[in-house]
Specification:
This protein has 146 residues and is an alpha+beta fold. It has five helices and five strands.
């Protein structure tokens, strides 16, 4: 694992305790909201405002050190898996999120039929469904018919 302070220096971002704590929190709990990250940061370094956490997340995302994911109807999620074009799958019931590697081979839904003159360099895909735990819970609550 690369030292977070070194990553910040490589991207010309001043190293601060707040930035290091946010990077650790994102790494420890990928796909977390800013609120959860703020709670983790407070445990690490004590007091920090919600706005300061949002500001650090914004800088880190802008510099490519973390990735911001914005699922429809949900708060933004943050992760430190950057540098690849992976996708995500989200449980409709509990909101758990997992990484999904890019599809290979024939992927017609990821090929724009009309690029409107854009040079497309990335596709962001979010798959929705039910996670194994929620599927199991659903089966347990369904009455058995005899």
């Amino acid at each position: 694992m690369i030292d977070p302070a070194e990553l910040l220096r490589e991207r010309k971002v001043p190293v601060t305790a707040q930035r290091l704590a946010v990077m650790r929190a994102v790494s420890d709990r990928p796909h977390s909201t800013a609120e959860i990250i703020a709670e983790d940061v407070r445990i690490q370094i004590g007091a920090i405002s919600r706005q300061a956490v949002y500001n650090v997340l914004g800088v880190l995302a802008e510099k490519g050190l973390i990735r911001r994911i914005q699922p429809a109807g949900s708060p933004a999620l943050y992760e430190d898996r950057v540098g690849d074009n992976h996708h995500h799958i989200i449980c409709r019931d509990c909101g758990s999120t997992a990484d999904v590697d890019c599809a290979t081979g024939d992927t017609p839904c990821l090929t724009a039929c009309d690029n409107s003159g854009y040079l497309i360099d990335e596709a962001e895909v979010i798959f929705w469904g039910k996670c194994p735990e929620c599927r199991t819970e659903s089966l347990e609550t369904v009455p058995a018919f005899n």
